Amino acid sequence: MRGGDSAAYGELVLLHAPIAHRTAVLLGAGADADDVVQESFVKAYRALGEFRGGAAFRPWLLRIVANETKNCLRSRSRRSRREEVAAPLDVVLDPAEETVSLERRAELLSAVQGLPEAQRLVVTCRYLLELDEQETATVLGWPRGTVKSRLSRALERLRKEVLP
After folding, report:
1. Which of 71, 76, 5, 1 is nearest to 39 (CA)?
2. 87: which DSSP letter?
3. Residue in 135, 118, 125, 127 with CA at minimum distance from that of residue 162
4. Helical (H) or strand (E) element with 74
5. pTM of this prediction?
6. How many Å apart are CA 116 and CA 60, to the nearest integer?
7. Is CB count within 10 Å lower at the N or C end of the chain?
8. pLDDT tens, residue by residue, 50-85
């Protein structure tokens, strides 16, 4: 793959496109998620020479997606065009989660969206994207200890806001 094998890279794109799209949506790309993902894969392909052999591809790619999403949001802000950043619940949450009522999910999602940015990002990566601690640290570019502390603060805040 690092040698420029486009067929091998095409397989990686097919494998990782769904999680990349989900990441872009959950981090706020909204309607621009497809563009963010496409640009991320182009940048990843161009940066393959910088990819450390033996490292996991998914966290590396998702970090690029996270950075592209930030760029998209910054650009959108500069143009003073605000779009709805929340994705529909059926995109954000796994439809198999039928045990939680739609109202409860909406309340939880609203509470997550109301978190400060750093806490929202860490909750999104850990629980909505189901990344482990190390992957979350890689995607967000934070030390693992920062992921732990911000996640702990975010969960405490969510407990106070959502639980009776």
Report:
1. 71
2. P
3. 127
4. helix 57-78
5. 0.66
6. 24
7. C
8. 888 788 899 999 999 999 999 998 887 765 433 343
